Amino acid sequence: MARDKTKSTQATPTTQRSGEQAPNPVWFKPVMFGFMLLGLAWIIVFYVSQGALPIASLESWNIVVGFGIAFIGFLMTTRWR
Question: pTM to 2 decimals?
């Protein structure tokens, strides 16, 4: 039996990505810097208030919370285009 040459066995071409990624949304950069500044402000407030603020019951864990918030902002810099 002969093959029917009218039917194509090739797949339809798909759109290829050009290698460039889409730019970040408008809100990305302000949120990124906001996290960094909020974390820094959290730590500064903790030291200036001698541990009474921002959350007194956390005691020294306020430093970890401040660094954690700032770290989220620094992690966002890896996705910034």
Answer: 0.73
